[in-house]
Each structure stands twice: as C-alpha cells, then as structure tokens.
C-alpha cells in the first residue's frame, strides 16, 4: 500500500539491503543538501529562482520518480544530479563525494527528445560512446549484441533511426546510455512522446533494465500513473521554486511489471499523488497565466 515517509527515513532500506548482501544494491548513492538553483537574470530579465532548497537522498539501487507541476524545476534537479549544472547554494553528493559541475563517472542521462544520431545505424548509434572511449571493437561487438537483445532491437542493427518507430528510437538512446554501464540512470520524460501502450511496454523494459543492472534510477515524468507504476519512491515537488512536498513509498515488489496498474493499490497511489499535486498545479497555472 501507499504510505508516506519523511525523506530522511528511506535510508534504512539501503542499509537493510547491504546487510542482507543483496547483489542488486550496487547503484549510486546520491544526496542533495539544501540545494538551490537560481538562473541569473540577463537582458533586463530578472534572476529566476527555479529550485529548492531541496534535501533529498537517493538510496543505491532503488527506483525514484519525480513529479511536480510544469516548470517547478524537475529538469533542473536532474541537471544538478548529472553534474550538468552546479547548485547556487547547497551541495550535491554522489557516493559521498561533492560534485561541482562535472558529469560524474557512471552517470547516464536519457532525455525526452529523440537524441539518436540520424546518420548512424542502430549498431553505430549504440556503439558510439564506447568508440569515443577507444574500447576495442571485439568488446564493443559483444556489448552491442547484449544491449540490442535487452532492448528488443535485434534484427534492426543496420537500420537508420528514420526507419524506426519513435519507441524504437528511444530504445536506441536508452541502449546507448546503457553501454556506458551507468550506476545512476537519469531519465527526463523519456516516454513523453510515445503512445500509452508503448509507454507501458517501455516501462516494463525499463524495470527489466533496472533489475538487471542494479543501477539507481531517477525518472522525471508528468504522468502520475507512470510514476506510480514504475517507482519504489515518488518524490512530489511543489510549484516553482520546487521544493520537496512529500515522498510516497509505493511498496511494490522488485519484480513488478505493468500489470500492477489493475491492482486497487495502484489507484490509491495515483489518487494520493493527485491529491498532493492538484493545488500546486493550480498555483503553477495561475502564475503562468499572470505571466510571472
Ligand atoms: N537556462 C535557463 N535559464 C533561465 N531559466 C531557466 C533555464 N532553464 C530553466 N529555466 C526556468 O527554470 C524553471 C524550471 O525549469 P525546469 O525545466 O527545470 O522545470 P520542469 O519542472 O522540468 O518543467 P516542465 O515540467 O515544463 O518540463 C522554469 O521556469 C524555466 O523556464
């Protein structure tokens, strides 16, 4: 069942897994402490306080989703964790080490926009990062084969992105990220452009991937049902500047799949998320309509 816990209390789960010697608890541990992000003003535009302060701890090997009103700072939060931006105040730690604007090793990011390279085949798209790193072709070949199989792309290795569906192109991007064996996978609305059925199936694939790699996953999504189905923990953000409103533990078993959407608990979780977000979303809409 859905239950709410204060952000600090989720630490115990990781400790339990480690004590039990769980091999899947191999992902990255992340922590934001008092992190804020203010975009400086320019050309007569005032500075914009986009995020925080936020305190959030991501335990190794768990699946997190972040939901919140449009423009509340979800992508900004992801950029801080990815090391693509530095906090204006506060700190971000990856495995206990502060990061300051450096993309940490073992972090993979997947964005909403189809980021496949149109001039490369599926195979070469997936191999791209490893080639950049100078990895030998033998090893690349083995890894690409594994990734195409895992992402259901076998048989399409020599196709170009334009010959694939949107869902397949997004799988190519996920496979390319996977190649780098990330211990922290950050996804910003990766299924936003897909139809509902494809989103559910991609969600199942993402769950498989998460189980197989033991990575820590943080998924940003507008879709409350996607968050409720996929995540162990749903972080609910307020309207801008986004702060953590609540942390909802879904309580799903690790071997879940999209069939849980028919369970009564699923409806209870999505209702809980909407009751937390409804007022915030109205506030965000109101602010947008006032043009501030
Ligand atoms: N580089 C930037 N410079 C100035 N303002 C920015 C920049 N990037 C984002 N913002 C602003 O910061 C706020 C938060 O943006 P962000 O993209 O993090 O929100 P979000 O919750 O991911 O939005 P959405 O739900 O619409 O995708 C928004 O008001 C946005 O316009």
What structural class do you assign from the helix and strand content?
alpha/beta
CATH homology-level superfamily of the largest domain: P-loop containing nucleotide triphosphate hydrolases
Strand content: 15-25%
Helix content: 25-40%
Q: State the distance separating the first and last CA atoms.
A: 39 Å
- Average pLDDT confidence is 86
Ligand kinds: adenosine-5'-triphosphate
Q: Note the total helix count.
A: 8
CATH fold assignment of the largest domain:
Rossmann fold
Family: Belongs to the ABC transporter superfamily.
Protein name: Taurine transporter ATP-binding subunit
Biased composition (Basic and acidic residues): 11-21
EC number: 3.6.3.36
Provide a descriptive summary of the structure in words:
There is one protein chain. The chain is an alpha/beta fold and 292 residues long. The strands form two sheets. Strands 1-11-10-4-9-8-7 form a seven-stranded mixed sheet, with helices on both faces. Strands 3-2-5-6 form a four-stranded antiparallel sheet, with helices on one face. Helix 3 crosses helix 4, helix 3 (122-132) packs parallel to helix 5 and helix 4 crosses helix 5. It has eight helices and eleven strands. The protein has two domains: 28-106 and 197-290, 3-Layer(aba) Sandwich (Rossmann fold), CATH 3.40.50.300; 109-181, no CATH class. Bound molecules: adenosine-5'-triphosphate (ATP). Adenosine-5'-triphosphate binds at residues 39, 48, 50, 68, 70-76, 240. Adenosine-5'-triphosphate (ATP) binds at residues 39, 48, 50, 68, 70-76, 240.
């Amino acid at each position: 069942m859905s239950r709410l816990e204060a952000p600090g209390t989720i630490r115990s789960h990781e400790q339990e897994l480690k004590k039990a010697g769980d091999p899947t608890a191999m992902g990255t541990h992340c922590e934001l402490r008092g992190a804020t992000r203010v975009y400086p003003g320019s050309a007569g535009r005032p500075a914009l306080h986009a995020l925080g302060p936020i305190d959030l701890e991501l335990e190794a090997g768990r699946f997190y989703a972040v939901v919140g009103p449009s423009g509340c700072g979800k992508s900004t939060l992801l950029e801080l964790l990815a090391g693509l931006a530095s906090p204006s105040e506060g700190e971000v730690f990856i495995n206990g080490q502060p990061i300051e604007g450096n993309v940490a090793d073992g972090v993979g990011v997947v964005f909403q926009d189809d980021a496949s390279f149109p001039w490369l085949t599926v195979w070469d798209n997936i191999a791209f990062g490893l080639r950049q790193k100078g990895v030998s072709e033998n090893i690349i070949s083995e890894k690409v084969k594994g990734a195409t199989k895992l992402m259901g792309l076998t048989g399409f290795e020599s196709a170009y992105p334009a010959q694939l569906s949107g869902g397949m192109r997004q799988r190519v991007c996920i496979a390319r990220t996977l190649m780098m064996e990330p211990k922290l996978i950050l996804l910003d609305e990766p299924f936003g452009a897909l139809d509902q059925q494809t989103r559910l199936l991609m969600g199942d694939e993402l769950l498989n991937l998460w189980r197989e790699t033991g990575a820590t996953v943080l998924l940003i999504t507008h879709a409350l049902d996607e968050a409720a189905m996929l995540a162990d923990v749903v972080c609910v953000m307020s309207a801008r500047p986004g702060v953590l409103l609540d942390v909802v533990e879904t309580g799903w078993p690790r071997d879940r799949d999209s069939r849980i959407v028919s369970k009564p608990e699923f409806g209870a979780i999505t209702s809980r998320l909407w009751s937390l977000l409804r007022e915030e979303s109205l506030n965000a809409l109101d602010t947008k309509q006032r043009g501030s």
